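Residues determine shape. We examine one folded chain.
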Amino acid sequence: MDKPGLTVSRILHAGYVLECEGARIAFDTIFENPFSRNCHAFPDVRFDAERIRRQRFDAVFISHFHDDHCSLESLDLLDRATPLYVYCIFEELFAMIRALGFTQVHALSLNVPVAIGPFKVTPREAMDADVDSMFQVQAAGLNLLNVVDSWIDEDTLAQLVEQGPWDMVLWPFQTMREIEVLAPSRAAAAPPVLPEEWIRQLKALAPRVVVPSSCQFQQEPWSWYNRAFFPITYAQFAREVGAALPRARVVRMNPSVSVRLDADGLHPAAPLDWVLPVGEQDLDYVYEGNAAPPSSAEIARHFAPLSAAQEAVVMRYCRTGLVEKYGEVEASSDYFDHPRLWQLSVYGGAGEVSRFHYLLEPGRATPVEAQAGALAWTTEIPAAKLYAALELGESLTSMYMRINDTVFDAGIERALLDADVVDDPLIRCLFSDSFGAYQAAQLRRLLARSLPEQP
């Protein structure tokens, strides 16, 4: 007779299906490739939408609102009676999910368990509790920790150690350099090693099985980010974690792969038939430091030129919308407490550039001529990406923004040592006080599809 067990199946990125005693729950369900606009599955997969529509889950849990974890396009494939449990402090997300037609949408609270058949799912506190969460899952006498892609602080680690022993930990294995690639000429290349605290924390948790989790994507095939964004390989993770935890198994789970976990260990299980691997699956990341980034003009040529109407949206924003917005957002450092001349360069699909200059003062941005003084900040961006951020909810990670890729005068260079890249004026105007722009754009598209055609 089979021992009580738990079947764990990988969807993609932080997405999993767990099955036990006939009950099925899922986490961070992403059924798209690419997802989050230009995160391309790595290794490559396709999804059988019709088979997904026939799936029935006893519950779906979403760890946080980021669009690579909560996508309305993916949720749209699920039965509207599916109970959804979402960790998010913003009511707007719940309203959007309900507007899509879901009838059972529940807010998760930290350390408050949810019982679904044989499962007990408990959200645990991540380092940034305003954004994301982790999940402890208990079933069939087994104890699983899904760290999603969060970081663990010391208080939470102590609590998790008390919750042990752990049978399986799904551990986010990429550090990712989404900030460093914004200013490659000013960022040091990261050493391709696991952070020391990861090894220490994994030793403290002492799981039987460790799965390198969460990061399963790259950018477009031509993108220089693919050589600069991801410092850690699967092979390195397995080598370092295996050496530090010799009694643990380090198991790579590619999309669709399933395993059955019981008291004796891991056993093969039937793969998900609606996640379809494409080509070689045991691919690994290649890291080349800052990887000689191409110019913004060259990057912009990879995107289709904007239509006249789309270009008008971008130009109007640069001339008036950004100026109006700047006074409403504040920087986290004091660099912009002083007057600064900012140059914004917007590159079209043929590599042509439109440059805008602004005198930035506390609470005010004033368009000026280029000769108004010495530059103190520069920002470059493809016009297609600026349009996508304005109208489609595209996030900073995929916008190919280039910040301060020049040498300023000595006084500015000294002052910049205390400035933060994400204090960039365009970043602040686009993202500092917005929530759920990606999901809101998805909802508009999905609801428009459902409207009857006008005669």
The CA atoms of residues 180 and 276 lie 33 Å apart. The chain has a mean pLDDT of 94. The chain has 13 helices and 24 strands.
